[in-house]
Design goal:
This protein has 200 residues and is α+β, with helices and mostly antiparallel strands. The chain is built from six helices and seven strands, in the order H-H-E-H-E-E-H-E-E-H-H-E-E. The protein is globular.
């Protein structure tokens, strides 16, 4: 049985994570508006900054809504998931490949998005993250030229006796095992020099 995580309140870490990730694009929007106010001349650069920042913030909000929100019994179609990942990729260092053709339960998409965030922490220079399912097993794979692997964090996904204190940027490592167990899924992970895998 999965034990209670030592972090007193994972929800507060989630809130901190969301705020941290959104403050940058929202701050850039404010900067763009200030520049427009200061320079009423040709404002194409400032408008591009605002447009890109709005898109970045919207992409993150849509992603967070799935990763951290309630899943229920809803299904998510390929087009919806692809739209979220495409918008996120446009504002990040990652290319995403969604290789599932049919609608999928939102609860499993949520696990896949949390797995994405785990992989993201190990890929500081970006790379490609792919999602696929074989029979009933999902596999999320990160491919990069440079892995930054925190052995304790990754061990905590599968060893319930390892419960490191998490920062907001690492909250997905606390949520994924709990939510996977609730969904009746068993997590596993593996890695080599350039690839890192999470299966459930």
């Amino acid at each position: 049985m999965l034990s209670v995580h030592p972090n007193r309140d994972l929800s507060s870490l989630v809130g901190s994570r969301i705020c941290h990730d959104l403050i940058s694009p929202i701050g850039a929007i404010g900067n763009g508006i200030e520049l427009l106010q200061m320079a009423p001349r040709d404002s194409a650069a400032e408008l591009n900054l605002i447009t890109d920042s709005v898109g970045n913030a919207a992409a993150r909000i849509r992603f967070f809504r799935v990763a951290f929100g309630a899943a229920g019994d809803q299904m998510m179609g390929r087009a919806e998931v692809m739209s979220i990942l495409s918008d996120l990729s446009a504002a990040s260092r990652f290319d995403c490949e969604w290789r599932l053709e049919t609608p999928q339960p939102r609860v499993l998409v949520r696990l896949a998005f949390l797995a994405f965030q785990c992989l993201e922490t190990a890929m500081p220079h970006g790379g490609t993250i792919s999602f696929k399912s074989l029979d009933t097993t999902w596999r999320v794979t990160g491919c990069t030229q440079s892995l930054k692997y925190d052995a304790t964090l990754w061990a905590s996904l599968t060893d319930y006796d390892i419960r490191p204190a998490l920062s907001p940027a690492q909250v997905q490592f606390g949520l994924l095992p709990v939510l996977a167990q609730e969904a009746g899924r068993v997590l596993s992970s593996a890695r080599d020099d350039t690839d890192l895998h999470i299966a459930f």
